[in-house]
Sequence to fold (658 residues):
Amino acid sequence: MSLRTMAWAEAVTESARKQTRPLPPPRNTTYLPPHLRYSGGGGDGGGYSSYGRGSSESTQYGFGGGGYRGGGRSGPGRDGGRGGRGGGGGGRSRGWVQTPRPNREAFHDVSGKFEQLKVREGDDVGNVGINFDAYEDIPVEASGEDVPVPASTFGEIDLGECLNNNIKRCRYVKPTPVQRHAIPIAMAGRDLMACAQTGSGKTAAFCFPIISGVLAKCVERSQSNGDGWTAFPRALILSPTRELASQIFEEAEKFAYQSGAKVAVVYGGAPMGQQLRDLERGVDILVATPGRLVDMIERSRVSLKMIKYLALDEADRMLDMGFEPQIRKIVQRMDMPPPGARQTLLFSATFPHEIQRLAADFLKNYIFLTVGRVGSSTDLIAQKVEFVRDMDKIEHLCGLLKNQRDNETHGKLALTLVFVETKKGANQLENWLSRNGFPAIAIHGDKVQMERERALRLFKCGTTPILVATDVASRGLDIPHVAHVINFDFPKSIDDYVHRIGRTGRAGKSGLATAFFSEKNQPLAKALVELMKESKQEVPNWLNDYAEQSLSYGGDQSQRYSSSNFGGYDVRRSENYYGSGSNGYGDSSVGAAAATCNDVSGSYATGSFGYGGNYGNSSVDEPAASYNGSYGGETDAAGTAGSSSFGNYENIVAGGWD
Ligand SMILES: Nc1ncnc2c1ncn2[C@@H]1O[C@H](COP(=O)(O)OP(=O)(O)OP(=O)(O)O)[C@@H](O)[C@H]1O
Fold:
């Protein structure tokens, strides 16, 4: 990173901040969000907590007395582990699938691979390992009427001088595939549902057209309402978490630098006063989490009646059961112009069919764009899946971390993100790791915003290289140099898996993802195998066996995106939304125009991207002094709380919104 660029980035950032055999899935017709599907109830019949009722909370992963075998510590830790097993492991099946033993060799494989990856990952100065060519052959498909022609360079798109200068400052030399396609579509004024792999540059794909559109027309940004000021943003970008909102805001600020377009952010957990003052100064582009935004609207501090652009990042998450009511309120029941009078852009790496159908309510004559198969993961991420029983998890994790550390130069740990299911589990693992010589910090929705931001900051700068996180950190966060993502608890859905592992292997870099898998995760086996095969990963035999079993058992999630040999799948194509064929930039044998290509230009074949991860280290350092009562809570998995047939999820959901 050049000093000049660094100074610019910092200036902008600174100014911006002040088991058991699982029960078959219910065969219902109502949509259930991923996190509520296939909760791994223990064999004791119960509950959301996959470790079973019988286990004492403190021993669910065998944290017991600390220490793991490899660390030379004695008894209590192991005993603790057994205690956990005693309770939670009650219903392991017999003779159903042969339970493989954890593979000791796997440790060495992983560290070997890790070592290999680290070499590519490490060198910022020369941009070694930054490899957008990796996206070159990715299948791209666009369906809908009159699909605009993609662009192969930023220069081909009329984004305006200021934005173009900022793109150069960001060292974005060429658009990524999603940007090549999505930016011209959005610039043509079309609604868009875009699905592209994690880390492939979706933020810029919606920010550039929005900034350019806002700059094209100047209007009044705020008005006195007799009792204060009301802000009239023209663009609204919604995000499911505070950290992601904050990150999008920082990105948008950089892209809009010196353009005159004003960007502001509002999210829960941070004091309202500063956010209100920012709004009073006028705002063109507002980045927000839903809860805080509703609060601001109800206080007449924000009006949506001037909105011309609405973007939903992580759109499938925003429209699942947890967030949908709030999004409907914002989009349909406040004063926002209807579809057609505004332009709507939905982005995510995953788009289940059910969500696509829901999303259609918010869109008009939209184009559906997929870069890579919907929900696919990039093959930049080396995926390892290891069979690890709950009682062995902690020991296994320690083995991995120890190996990793031993292979590091200077004995330092590369940034490692460990995902667990519950907030309590996150705290326990953080404590355990810290006590046993692994510098770890946790982030989850029960922490106050200041603690969350601190955790992210310490992780990003490498002071605390292990971040133990719930799904609050699974989507969108762009933390450079995350070398290893470990799914200590396997996620509840393959979509969540895709997003979690996508915290590494970003922007053309390589990364490693290791998942601990056990019998109770079997319903996800087939989808996982498909995903791994698609991203050219080696699938262990035992996992293939599980996948076959889950087929006959009927509990797999692999059909969520329906069949399409490659590229994504626009639900409209299977549901007669279209009459006779319309035109895209390719031929289509189905009603909807579907253009498929291995991207537009050969230009990716040569040259490398100038990206150096130069802005990623901007820290989130505005302390949150107070909590806003009504929206201070955080949803780690979903915004929904309460009873359900899936048992209690006391550890998961605190209720409330960001
Ligand atoms: N054209 C480009 N050239 C170089 N780097 C880029 C380009 N576009 C985006 N990047 C960088 O790639 C990284 C990932 O981008 P971004 O966070 O937008 O990914 P994403 O697709 O939104 O990921 P996720 O699905 O996880 O939210 C960022 O660090 C961003 O600065």
Summary: The chain has a mean pLDDT of 72. The CA atoms of residues 428 and 567 lie 41 Å apart. Residues 172, 174-176, 179, 196, 198-204, 349, 476, 478, 502, 506-507, 609, 611, 616 surround adenosine-5'-triphosphate (CB under 6 Å).
